[in-house]
Known about the structure:
This protein is an alpha/beta fold. It is built from nine helices and 15 strands.
Amino acid sequence: MDLLSRAESWLCDMDGVLIRDGAMVEGADRFLERLRSTGRPFLILTNNSLFTPREVSEQLASMGLDVIEGQLWTSALATAKFVNSQRPRGSAFVIGKTSMHEALADVGYREDDQHPDYVVLGETQDYSFEEMATAVRLIETGSRFVATNPEPTGQSPTGSLPGCGALAAMIQSATKVAPYFVGKPNPVMIREGLNILGAHSKTTVMIGDRMDTDVRAGVEAGLGTILVLSGVAQKGQIEHFPFQPSRIVESVADLIDEL
Length: 259
């Protein structure tokens, strides 16, 4: 069967797919409406852990996209669920924004800067040297190191910003302990998305703008994959990867008439 005809459910990246540079990608609103009108459930997955689902929903609404909180799955939520599945109602030293703190609190985690089960690193633009030094000391004395996502940079209207992956590399260099990244391309985040939708990998499509996170995660989880060129990926780079998307399109607008 054709990829789109068998796609009963959709996992969709956000940045570079639905929005870019603070504005909606042209046709993204019609794409989501088409999924709704044809009865295809979808979940928007984002490695960005800076914002709570409520904040993301409000941001998308300001750009013309109607997405409720329950249709958003962030790396902060995925990380909180992961650590709680490993050590239920444990403790963590957290470097990150309110979204990361709230996600951990919601699963019953308490914060501890003395003897935590985990050091949890999320996206942040407000980290301090003291926080990084505390994280290093805690990991050296046995706390497990988990981070939300591996991207070394984030994007802004003025250019690249240091991302979670870059901060994680700093801690790893000091401790010689590599973090466990929960966000894409880890298929853990994809599988949990499937569970939320009650979907099966064989009838679900992952759509994203990055080969190294979105497409890789989809491939490793056994999903069909669509790469859009409205974000990070460039055509000339795609063939260099050992895995390939099921399909490549310019943007989600190219899929509307086929759904």
